[in-house]
Amino acid sequence: MKTRKINFDGCAGLEIATPRLRMVVTVDIGPRIAFLGRPDGENLFYWHVDDPGRDGWRPLGGHRVWATRPMADESEDAYAADNEPCELEESDKFVTVTGAIHPFLKTQRGVRIRPLDDDAFEVTSFVHNLGPMLYSAGVWCPTCILPRPVMTFGIPLGDRHLSWDVVKMVIPRAWAGHTSRINDPQIRFNEEFMVVEPQGVEAKRMVWAPLGILAMTWPEARLSFIKRTQSDPHAQYPQGCNLAVYIGPENYMVEMETCGAERTLMPGDTAVNVETWRLSDEVLDWSDADRVIRAAR
Question: Most buried one in 56, 141, 152, 169, CB count within 10 A?
Fold first, then answer.
């Protein structure tokens, strides 16, 4: 792993590189991961520093560290304090970027990045409870992709090794001024996958996927991005779902979202969502779950 401090689109950033991966995290605003791609390639992420946002909060894009709240997952404190300057810690094995302490909630968010091999990072997003009271949350990780033509997304459904295999999906039809159609041609299913083919109409689907794999494939570039998170069938997740895909209006972005288990945090306790991020030169086939599972390892 090699690191160097850079200016990224007007933001103070730290570049983290392996021979085949380049990542940029911002340190003056965040915690955010602003860039992911090959060393000489395009940014796979949607990143837009000029987005004015709302009420002083700027969406920006990239990878964010949010918090789900039991039965209040879209509350304002989902994204509170993720636009402030961060603390940076570097070692030979990992980089940690920790955001500001929220003045009221007394929570602090951050992300730790550790290379696994030339094509993969372990990305641990976390929420600390630094206050004297209890705090309940799960760690919500929206990663914003900039969609390109013929780029598609897939989630392997169910677990074929279980004798009782149930597939669960939740459709948020209306929320916070947003809408999602029930009968949506952008989203299709086969026996192995939920497949998302963005066509510019706002949509969201949440699913319980025990394998915890959410993938994107881009045939024109012969490139795939795979996120894999841990899952616990006995834990509580938002609406019982651990993965979600959101299509922004006019395809301005597609969010690949994973959620960690919701839990009560004692003072000084930390909730985490550990993801493996892998870039592959393989074009994924949304009818071959075994191939996608191998690519996610």
Answer: 141
In which domain, by residue range, is 233 found? 2-296
CB 173 within 8 A of CB 182: yes
286 CB-contact burial (10 Å; exposed 0-12 / middle 13-18 / buried 19+)? buried
Amino acid at position 21, single letter? L
Q: What is the pLDDT of residues 41-87, one digit of tens each?
A: 999 999 998 877 777 778 899 999 999 988 776 778 887 778 899 99
Indicate which CATH number applies to the domain containing 43. 2.70.98.10
Rounded distance, CA 128 to CA 109, Å? 6
* Cβ atoms of residues 70 and 240 within 8 Å: no
Q: Is this structure's pTM higher than 0.85?
A: yes
CB atoms within 10 A of CB 152: 20
Residue 108 to residue 126: CA distance in whole angstroms? 8
Residue 97 region by backbone torsions, left for phi larger than 0, else alpha for psi between -120 and 50, else beta: beta
Cα separation of 129 and 183, whole Å?
A: 41
Strand partners, 227: 214, 277
